[in-house]
Amino acid sequence: MMATTHVFTGLAVVAPIVYVRPEFATALAMGAILGGLVPDFDLVLAHRQTLHFPVAGLAVAVPAIVAAAVAPSALTLAVAAFAVTAWLHAASDAIGGGPEMDPWNERTERAVYDHVRGRWIRPRRWIRYDGAPEDAVLGIAFASSALLVFDGWLTVVIVGGVAVSLVYTLYRRRLVAWTPDWLE
Fold this sequence. Notes:
Layout (H helix, E strand, L loop, with lengths): L2 H18 L4 H13 L19 H14 L3 H19 L19 E3 L4 E3 L11 H15 L5 H26 L6
Antiparallel strand pairs: 1-2
Helix pairs in contact: 1-2, 1-4, 1-5, 2-4, 3-4, 5-6
């Protein structure tokens, strides 16, 4: 899935909390945004292996949620939003295609690495590849729910993210031809 879809997923997950506790909107949004983006920082390393923890991430997310529930503060809620969104990012990569530049060719049976079992989880391909039309639809659905509770600069970020998602979706398959060989 697109990085924006992961971010919108996190924002949608924290939206009910923001609705009840709007004073924590910024902390929750920042945690969710970073949690949606940071796992893909491994793009230049072993993508979907180095910073993706689809199983082990739950062992971090659950205590973070407990800490935020017991002692709600901007910090504990931001950390919980980050941990949950980063875990969801890694886990949901298994519902898409592989990490290669052209996953629609289905050249690999590796979606995301499970550090607990020491093996790759196979791609389900429900979302055929990042930037597929169904990815854009899913992202827009999650962004829409986030727009119901977030306002101000976060509205601008969300709407901007939707625009980026749509442009990426339009050009995604053409990007492979434009990619330098050293990046493949």
